[in-house]
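dude i think i finally got it to work??
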Amino acid sequence: MNVDSNQARKALVAFVIERELLKIGKMTLDQVTSRLYEEHHCYLGDCYEHPEYLAEVLKRLFGNSHTVIAESIKKELADFTEHKQIERFLKIISG
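look at this
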């Protein structure tokens, strides 16, 4: 895999997560990013390689409603599921 294309997919995933959280509200984005950093010392871009962190934070903050956020992210990334890492990311955050 090309390093540049991997970085591009990582940036795409981070952008989609941020945009979908901002659709809910800036406070939601702030809560999620704060928790990711406090609990896992990571940023949105790191969720591409560690989707379990995002899944855990969303479940903790939103309970069963986390599935709505996961589905909106999944919908936005649906055209990119031919990439194994994005497919893995979506499977983990949806679980």
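The mean pLDDT is 95.
im so relieved honestly
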